[in-house]
Structures are given as structure tokens and as C-alpha cells.
Amino acid sequence: MRFSHTLKTALALAAVLAFVLALPAGGEKKKRDNMRLAKEISKEFPVKEIEFDEPFRCQYREFVNYITLDEFEVYGIKVKAVRVDDKTLQVSWEGSEPRNIRKTTVVTVRSGEEAHRICIYRHPVTGDWAYFNAVYRQAKLPKGTISFFDMDCDGKWFEPKVDAVMLGARSAVSPIMPVKWYYDWNLTDLEFTGSGKKMKLKAKLVPIKCYPNERAAMAVLNDFRMEMGLPLLPLDEELSRKCRIYAKFISLNGADMADWNIVQNPKPGHLGYTPECEEMKRSIFFCFDGAIVAMGDLIGQFYHRTQFFFPDTKGFGIGEDGVVSVFNGEYLRDEEYMKWNYPIMIPAPEQTIRYYVYYGKYGGETPDPRPGGVSCSFPITLQWENASHEIDDVKAALYYVDKRKKKEIEVSSYCFWPKRPAHPTRPNNEGQILILGEKPFKRGARYHVTVEYTIDGKKEKQDWYFNT
Predict the structure, then answer these.
(1) CA geometry: angle at 185 spanning 179 and 188, to 5°?
(2) Do 331 and 388 have their domain in common?
(3) Which residues share a beta bridge with 453?
(4) Which end of the chain is more exposed for a tag (fewer CB within 10 A), N or C?
């Protein structure tokens, strides 16, 4: 079953990388565990420098720094860049001989005793020249690894919203954000300092109240987000408390058998009503099997997953009561928190997903965007920061990449956008472009997506690949 595989994988990653939350400390044993963990990771870890010459996937900015002038600066060293011809870039710096570069090459830039490895990168399609730090630093923690990327080559490494981080072995990097980290089943303040071959890690545990299924659901979502290159979502305790109250209200009013007019419009006099219920009515809720199954199900559904993938969410809420779970990723959004290079493509470029079908264990979602309500592929979407954009003239195509025959075969698909919504009750189509393969994706396959459209009168095109 597709979801069980996804869940097992995500929970295994959670155990290693722990994008999860701690239960409230209870009893001396729990306190001793917390103290031991804090002592264990408050020490110096050796850092391994790993050289590479291919950019990682990165959504929040260009991974490379394009060379637009005749000079650029790395680690305070000025590097001259002269275009000799269409295919040759000559680089030099004080004390060096000019060097002609005709393809992507790692060079060592020196100044006195300083030496920095930089990759001079030639874009394989456009031929444009760029550079990036050819080394990332990886610390092996008691469980898993954490890697840092100095994106702007200034030697600072840990600048929020500028530099990048990767937890475990992935193909995408995420922006470093000014939030707490999830490490070893605890919400933790981690501070990285130092340079060279040693990196000092300071840790302070931050107890937070949540239930096991809530933290496991958070692991499922954060695993998918980091594969996309989105920032880690911190779970907000107060928002989760309100989600839990709303979940209780839905349970008391019949869960999946409830009167939706009551559930979606809580008012004084309704069974279990509190002001928080009315406040949380724009949340996403799921009335079967609890938070873990709900999260896996909703990631594969179009209308309900939008709140899960905003990059500017400062805190996420999860609340569970019995089989009912409530999620909120909308109320703590802040456009100043993280500027993003929209649109967000789901699946992301070169992402490998473990979802194949438009999944709905209980028959899909309501409303159902699938033509005729029949089985389709996992939804492919282009998502913007809100639904205010004028999107039209959409032309999309989906291709299966036949690796054996070395050719691409177009796959029958459906495409919907605000002026051609998938369901009449959602006339703005969530402000997104939705593409559905007529049939579920194949396992272990590669797909190619092309989308042309106009947004606010401007023509744009997105062209990317992903894997299953």
C-alpha cells in the first residue's frame, strides 16, 4: 500500500533526523533523559569538508552566483573574470597567473595563507558563467548528519535566509531559518559556531507539549518539505493547543458523521463550543485514523494541502482528538519571514516522491478535482503565495521518460487553473495550476513537466523533471 511505505520511510527518517517534537517532561526518568541529551550534544564535533562540483537543488534562491561583472569577490578576495570568447572565461586574482576555464572547474583561490576552493560553473544550457563554494561542511552528530553551505561565499556559513542546511543525505538544500531545530525527538536550540576542522555545537532543550501522533505527523510533513528544499516547519504549541480544541469539537459533534454546517461554522450553543473553535474554523481537518494517516493522505490531495507548503510559515499547528486531526499552516504566516522565488512546484524539480496515485483512503477529498472522481496521479501543482494573481492561457504537458528507449512519451493528463477550475465549488482553483495524470504514476520512473502560462499579463514557462 502506497501510504504505508511512505509512512515507514518518513518515520525512519524521523528517528534519525528527528523533525519531531518532545512530549511534556514527566517524571525523573524523562528529566534525566533530557539532561543526558543536552550534555551529549554540547560538545565539539569534527567537521568533514566535502568537495563537489554540481549544484544541489535549491528553491529559495539560485544555488550558484552568476558572474555579471568583470570582477567578483569570494571570502574577501577579488577575482577578475574576463570573457575571452563565447566558451572561455579567464580568471585571476592577486598573485596568480590568469587561467582559462572552458568547462565547470574547481579552482583554489589563494590570498596569503588563505585558500578557498571555488567551483567556476558553466550552465549546461545557457552557457552562462557562475561560481559557488565547492566545499560544504558536514558534522556527524550522535544521530545523523548535518551539512552547511556558505551560499554567498563570505565565510559566515550560518546566515539565516541566505546560507543553506541539509539534514541527512538529500539532493536539496533548505534555507537556514531563525527557528528551533528538531533533533533526537526533542525541540532544541542548536547554535553552531567555529570554523576550520572543528565546529562547536551548543544545545538547549525546549520542552513542548504534544502527543506522539502529532510529532510523527510533523515528521512526515517535514520530510516531504525538506526533499522539496522548503524550510523546516516549527510546531507551535499555542496553535496546536487550539487545533486540539477544535478537533475535540468535531469529535463531539459526530466526527465524519457530523453536520458540516456546525463543524465549519461553530457558534455558541453548539456542543463543545469554545471561542477557539470559531477561530480555527479555516483549518484543515480529517476525520479518520488520526494525525499520521491524515498527513500522508492530505499531502496527496490538491485542495487540502495548500497550507502545508507555504515557505513563510513561522509556526504550524497539529491537534488530534481520537480519529479526528486538525492542521493549520496559515495563521502564523508572515511574508517578511521568508521571501521566496515563486511558484513552488510540487513535486519539486528533481525531487523523488513516494506517492503515485491521487490518494484517498476513504474515496478522495471533498470536493474532488478528479474528472469523474476516478483514479488519477499524484497532483502536480504550481503554487503561489496567494490566489490574487491573474493566471491564464495555460498549456501543460506531462511526459514519461523511457530510459531504455531514451525517449519521452507524452502521458494523457488534465490541466486546471483559476479560469478553468477543477471543481465548480472552487472557482479560483486555489489560485494554482493543477496537472493530473490520467493514470497513477509508475514506480521507479522519471517524469518531465512543461507548463506555459501568463501571470498578471506576463508570459512564463516552467520546465522540470521529477522521479518516483
Answers:
(1) 30
(2) no
(3) 460
(4) N
